[in-house]
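Per reviewer request, we include the raw input and output of the structure prediction for the construct analysed in the revised manuscript.
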Amino acid sequence: MYGYVNTMKAKPGHRDEVVSILVSGADGLRAAGCRLYAVGVSDQDEQTILVSELWESKEHHDVSLRLPETRAAIAAAMPMLTGEFDSKEATIVGGLL
């Protein structure tokens, strides 16, 4: 299993709109091999968005980035983001799955 955690910062006043875009595309991810797609907001500031993902494999994740609905969501959200991103990848070895 492949894990991916991403944080991003929305421009002031746009966090909720970006979150709405990110959550709206979740339906098609299960068919693409996604086991978990969780979007959260920081309790420490009003700009940070966190996305946690669990995939069958890294390849499944990579293919999902080429889906039309994923590309449309990214294109819609990008103008509302500051460009500050941080991501971590992991091989999932156990836990509550």
